[in-house]
# Entry
Amino acid sequence: MNVTAELIRLYLLPDVEERIRHYTDLAHGEVSALGLVEEFEGGFLVTDLFLPRQQCSAASTRLKDEAVATLLLELDRSGRDPSLLRFWFHSHGNLGVFWSDTDNQCIEDLANGDYLLSLVVNKRGDALARLDIYKPARVTVDQIPVSVRTRSTGLREVCREEIRACVDEVQHPPHLMDPRFHGNPREFLLPFEEEEGFLRAVDPLEELEDDMLGRHLEQEEYEARCAWGEGRHEY
# Structure
């Protein structure tokens, strides 16, 4: 069974995504790697990427069985769960991204539990991802969106304390809450003048007499604003 889903997402940690780009760019032909996967609601996160010994050509990549077995053993010895090795990445060099018959067979051979996530990319930066579920029913979910996602390191709370210690927040003057200033490009052109200890916006451009506006602006800026008001916009 083949289905397409937008609700399932594949996320890569930044260093995983960077490794994939570099492996793809540096290999003369195809290349492949395996990764550890963490599950969360609505998606999967690839946290680590490993490059086992393999044999590759311009149109094929084959992981050595003994290299994959060694990787599983090393993961177990280091205290990491080898059953989480559920991500397979491979490149298509300068070709397009698609699932070849060889790719489909490799996905079957790499079955390591309930599911496998696969990603194929090329040197142009194209990417295609899928989720293969092996049990209780055999299902392929193709065209899964792929994104880079950072993982919280607790820095938010550190930043919160720094904000409290170093930032004195004040209330905005009332004129800054005026709805005229939201989504209006002229807000960046309006002159300001002092009144009773804080800045206030003068009336909109079209409501000002030319001689009044001239008192607020230097001649060059004044002419530029007149051009804006008449629709002569220059970028």
